[in-house]
């Protein structure tokens, strides 16, 4: 009895030790498992981004296999179209070798910061989405359009999915990321493709935040006096008005992750581009109605409004505006100044008086009101916009000068 009791007394702490050890092992296994699961999610995410990158650069997405997303959004050229075709970069040539779109290809860099397309009740304006008219709510929906657009990649879902499925690497990657059944349904497989492309577009490759301006904010670069004047003017409340539209509504001046757009829609009175009309792809009386061209919008008060573009990489992604009407950043700044400066009457690119707006209604005149600019101030704003160039494109600025 005694022995037994004694033994029992000993057994309790032993049992306790065993139980503790078991629970420790369990906890350990649980943690390992959790971190494995986290790693797996991470691996999956990386996998998806890599798949997206391959798809972004894959010409098989176009009918005649002549172009990929990167043909028009060249990663070496600020994710814009650098091709010099008959359209002189104003608009992009399609896969059929003769069709042109009717809008200037914007940079796809920093596009991920545009919120879902929505109406902002507080400010009474439409905000966000992708494309100049916001007609794609987000990047996934955006990526589904160019491959099927007859003026762009001109293909169809079934053909694209067939080609992807036939590629053993894609075949396996799609199954791994989207399930073994993914190839059973064309729509699902096509959607998976757009999902992977969007994942790639959300990586830091598209938004490295490493321009001179970003380095200046980190104390790694000193702005020249001209660049600094441009910065002051850009953000100033009573001189110029750029920040009214080209600054996130949520950010403060000199915010670390400023994308230089509030993603709101405005008509700033951009004139028609005679070079676009001369291409003969659109009717002679063609008017780009902007936001009114969004399939869900029929309110005439939205006519002529376009999504405010980011100014990141703007110095290396000429020409400018939805129709590429201006070739030079300096012209853009002078164009804004004409609203406030009665002496500024001539468009330096044409040598003729500024042409009237493509759409004369709904111009955001209140927001465009500012003090007139001097030559130095114009230069300063241009110099500041050049500092918004990602590091890997800085050599393009030098080439230009
Ligand atoms: C033939 C040239 C061309 C090809 C190919 C092309 N794009 Fe575009 N992209 C454009 C044009 C032009 C626009 C603007 C069209 C509009 O606003 O109506 C645009 C707009 C965009 C935008 C919106 C940017 C913004 O700020 O609103 C993104 C993102 C984008 N493209 C990504 C892609 C992806 C992803 C692919 C491949 C699946 C692709 N593009 C293929 C010419 C092209
Ligand atoms: C009322 C809002 C608003 C204000 C104020 C404004 N912008 Fe813009 N900006 C826009 C919109 C909208 C567009 C596109 C218009 C279009 O294509 O029809 C644009 C286009 C541009 C472009 C061409 C970008 C490209 O990729 O094509 C530049 C450069 C630019 N703005 C710089 C400035 C500067 C510099 C200022 C201050 C002097 C300024 N903006 C003030 C809304 C504004």
Automatic annotation (TrEMBL):
Residue ranges constituting the Cytochrome c domain according to the UniProt record: 47-168, 225-389
Modification(s) after translation: Binds 2 heme groups per subunit.
Residues that, per the record, bind heme c 2: 242, 245-246
Annotated localization: Periplasm
Residue ranges of coiled coil: none
One cellular-component annotation, GO: periplasmic space
Domain of life: Bacteria
Pfam families: CCP_MauG
Gene Ontology MF, one: metal ion binding
This protein's UniProt keywords: Heme, Iron, Metal-binding, Oxidoreductase, Periplasm, Peroxidase, Signal
Cofactor binding, per record: Binds 2 heme groups.
Positions with a binding annotation for heme c 1: 69, 72-73
Record-linked InterPro entries: Cyt_c-like_dom, Cyt_c-like_dom_sf, Cytochrome_c_Peroxidase/MauG, Di-haem_cyt_c_peroxidsae, MauG/Cytc_peroxidase
Cofactor(s) listed: heme
Protein known as: Cytochrome-c peroxidase
């Amino acid at each position: 009895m005694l022995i037994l009791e004694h033994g029992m007394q000993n057994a309790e702490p032993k049992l306790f030790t065993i139980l503790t050890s078991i629970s420790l092992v369990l906890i350990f296994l649980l943690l390992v498992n959790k971190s494995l699961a986290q790693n797996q999610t991470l691996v999956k995410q990386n996998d998806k981004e890599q798949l997206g990158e391959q798809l972004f650069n894959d010409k098989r997405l176009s009918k005649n296999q002549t172009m990929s997303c990167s043909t028009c959004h060249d990663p070496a050229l600020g994710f814009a179209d650098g091709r010099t075709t008959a359209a002189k970069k104003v608009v992009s040539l399609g896969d059929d070798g003769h069709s042109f779109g009717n809008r200037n290809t914007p940079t796809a860099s920093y596009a991920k910061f545009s919120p879902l397309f929505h109406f902002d009740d507080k400010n009474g304006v439409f905000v966000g989405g992708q494309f100049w008219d916001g007609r794609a709510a987000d990047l996934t929906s955006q990526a589904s359009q160019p491959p099927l657009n007859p003026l762009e990649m001109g293909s169809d879902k079934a053909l694209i999915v067939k080609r992807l499925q036939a590629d053993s690497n894609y075949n396996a990657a799609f199954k791994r990321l989207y399930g073994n059944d993914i190839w059973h349904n064309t729509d699902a497989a096509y959607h998976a493709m757009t999902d992977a492309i969007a994942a790639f577009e959300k990586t830091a490759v598209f938004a490295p935040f490493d321009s001179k301006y970003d380095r200046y904010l980190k104390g790694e670069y000193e702005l020249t006096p001209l660049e600094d004047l441009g910065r002051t003017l850009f953000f100033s409340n009573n001189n110029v008005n750029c920040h009214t539209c080209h600054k996130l509504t949520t950010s403060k001046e000199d915010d670390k992750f400023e994308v230089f757009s509030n993603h709101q829609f405005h008509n700033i009175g951009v004139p028609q581009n005679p070079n676009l009309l001369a291409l003969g792809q659109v009717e002679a009386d063609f008017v780009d109605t902007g936001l009114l061209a969004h399939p869900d919008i029929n309110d005439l008060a939205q006519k002529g409004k376009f999504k405010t573009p980011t100014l990141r990489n703007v110095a290396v992604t000429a020409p400018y505006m939805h129709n590429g009407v201006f070739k030079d950043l300096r012209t853009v700044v002078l164009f804004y100044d004409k609203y406030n400066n009665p002496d500024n009457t001539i468009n330096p690119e044409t040598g003729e008086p500024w042409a009237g707006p493509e759409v004369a209604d709904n111009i955001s005149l209140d927001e465009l009101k500012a003090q007139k600019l001097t030559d130095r101030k114009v230069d300063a704003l241009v110099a500041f916009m050049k500092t918004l160039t990602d590091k890997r494109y800085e050599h393009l600025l030098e080439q230009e000068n």
